[in-house]
Model the fold of this input.
Amino acid sequence: MAQGKTSRRGKAADEAQAADGRARDAARGLRVRAVRQADLPQVIALDATVTGLHKSDYWQRVYRRYGVGGQGLRHFLVAVHGARVVGFVIGEVRDWEFGSPPCGWVFAIDVDPHARLAGIGTALLGAMRERFRQVGVTMLRTMLSRDNQLLLSFFRSQGLTAGHLIPLQIEIETGAAGA
Done:
């Protein structure tokens, strides 16, 4: 093809192929391990990139509970490529909620948008499943917004389906009770 000419597939297809290549490259040399204090700035930045919110205090609390204090039944894992955190997952074993036997709950998972579709989310969820399996847990659960199609598609691709629990909620009013 002559230099400076766009392929027949067009610019969008070329960009998609380049993104796929970057994603595959990101998965090479990937390690999933327990989070370290030094990882927090990258976790906070990754979360801010995805959510648009910088929640440093929140992530410090999560680290204290699931990172430092997360031995055995609580886990905060990161996917690392080289020295860069490219994803994270957080979960815990919960016992006998509303009569349900102990099960593993994943309450946060994310992958750098530039490294998606490379198996990083699968590796993170697989590592969490293995930690749950090691303590005898046979069920993994999560909850997400019905509007989050990206995450819903990911979890469905991993074999998760609707469970028997129904999430219920109520707005907590401010002010005096019964007012």
Notes: The chain has one domain: 22-157. The longest helix spans residues 11-27. The helical segments are 11-27, 40-51, 56-68, 120-134, 149-157. The radius of gyration is 19 Å.
